[in-house]
Amino acid sequence: MGASPAIVMILFVAVGCFMAYPEAVTAKHTGITRRYTFNVYKAEITRLCHTKSIVTVNGKFPGPRVITREGDHLVVKVVNHVPNNISIHWHGVRQLQSGWADGPSCITQCPIQTGHSYVYNFTITGQRGTLFWHAHISWLRETPYKEVPILFGEWFNADPEAVINQSLQTGGGPNVSDAYTFNGLPGPLYNCSAKDIYKLKVKPGKTYLLRLINAALNDELFFSIADHSLTMVEADAVYVKPFETNVLMITPGQTTNVLLKTKSKAPNATFLMLARPYATGMGTFDNTTVAGILEYETPSTSLKNRPLLKPGLPAINATNFVANFTSKFRSLATAKFPANVPQKVDKKFFFTVGLGTKPCPKNQTCQGPTNSTKFAASMNNISFALPRTALLQSHFFSQYSKRVYTTDFPAFPQIPFNYTGTPPNNTLVNNGTKLMVIPFNTSVEVVLQDTSILGAESHPLHLHGYNFYVVGQGFGNFDPKNDPPKFNLVDPVERNTVGVPSGGWVAIRFQADNPGVWLMHCHFDVHQSWGLGMAWIVLDGEFPNQKLPPPPSDLPMC
Fold this sequence. Notes:
The chain is mainly beta. The protein is 6% helix and 39% strand.
């Protein structure tokens, strides 16, 4: 008997989970159409003794799961019942010839206005594992015995929209979150949260698949379960060579599946699950710890009498641990699950990523690095400015494009400098909606280089519309002569979100086989709000199946 068809799991604050199971081994799964309706409402919820209004989907927080098989067609109607304009991004879904369904506001669509709806229409192709979906406008988002999704999030007592708006107005860093959460629950280490605890109840001698999703706005997180090891088996909906670890690190925007094998006999103990930030920047961050409890189901022993064991976690800034952990990820690179790494490169790019400044408006005192500057962020010193009209729409109806964007994003830094050494005195960035145009099926290599301007920092970079292969990474400045010969072109990990090491670089490769406009940005929402992003225009190919189709009739208007 063949294995059962494998699943993608797509998980929503608006954040949810998406599970994609692979096609059957014995017969190709031809795919079926799965239809969902997402009604977006406001609701009140209490955490940490604060009651606030949140965004829910179909009355759920976090939102509902979408379970599908590889090859299935998804039709999701999103109806906006809240005062905010919204859009939904299907994070990590390739969106082959369905760029109109990708979701980022002002990139592939205008947001869905209050009282209106939009149908996201796409097919799951060549992906299996865990992805997630989330709001993509400002800060609105947040075969085993059993499968358990665990969504890491952040809780703000204040309105997150007010937090970022204040930051953008004053030019200072935003107020940090008040707590981290497991599946929306802060846990017992926070004040007024003794009852809001996520508990994972397990049976002895079983294997559990944990689907881990970091939906936090601005924090990479360490995660561990006391006295239990985890086996990594999938990253960003792509299988990896299994390896064991006691502690993992997951960036915002990343998903991973791990196997948890419980002890053969129920121990006389309960076990804390902890997550806390990995932070390398100079700014403030939420330096707290979220706790959940793993407990074994036993009929006799009282839980009150069991000792509570606590796992150890690395130091907050354990850069070497993170580098060693991320280097362990490898693609399966088998006949069934090949690593189709571009061996030859048509176009090479070198992008610096990091912080900078922009001038404070006249007659205003700002709270940036100085009282005359605001914080900004950029790639190749271009701070990305969101347009008022969606880029994909402007590209498709090309007669409007000149008024919306330019196609002169620099392929290399305009002024080279010692990127991880003493920073330049001039930290001002340039603003613009500048895009990079590449022909269909171009093989692309991008080196992403962190800079020391306003401090070195790790940056989780996410590419829409594509997976990419992480062929190399290191500390210091990238060496174009000596580093490429060390690239892994055999079994590099395939991802959609990668952490640029603090004070270092990472090299990725992908085949530009998906026409459209695709955003690449830092998944720290504050950095994206400050302009750390850019977009690619991938031109149509020669044949019909290589062209972007026309927009759907219900595409939201700006």
